[in-house]
Amino acid sequence: MAWVWLGLAGLLEVVWAVGLKATEGFTRFWPSVMTVFALSASIALLGLALKTLPVGTAYAIWTGIGAVGTAAFGMLVLGEPATAMRLAGIGLIAAGIVALKLAG
């Protein structure tokens, strides 16, 4: 179950990272509420996952899911550039996530 919590925590990290931009410096109420909720839930789920997973592995995977998901959202939805270098970097992060999961 810890891996499920960690996966959900990573997805919520994407939500709060994208939401952070939508808050416009926490000047917009509902985006700010959503962002704070997603951040709190993400950290709470990470904490649940850390009950059984190694901290280094869990933290690296959590941040990796957030980085890959946020970068992908930016390129697919926000029109950010999808250069070869950015895609290669995202691929390397994704490969690292898979390696850490397989390692344990």
Number of helices: 4
Q: Which regions have little confidence, pLDDT < 50, spanning 5+ residues?
A: none
What percent of the residues sit in helical stretches (DSSP H or I)? Answer: over 70%
Estimate what percentage of residues fall within beta strands. Answer: under 5%
The major pleated sheet works out as:
none
Global morphology? flat
Strand tally: 0
Number of domains: 1
**What string, H for helix and E for strand, traces the elements in order?**
HHHH
Rg, rounded, reads 14 Å
Going by helix content, strand content and strand pairing, the class is mainly alpha
Mean pLDDT equals 96
Q: How widely separated are the two ends?
A: 14 Å
Question: Would you give an account of this structure?
Answer:
With 104 residues, the protein is mainly α. The chain has one domain (2-103). 81% of the residues lie in helices and 0% in strands. It contains four helices and no strands. The protein is flat and about 40 Å long.
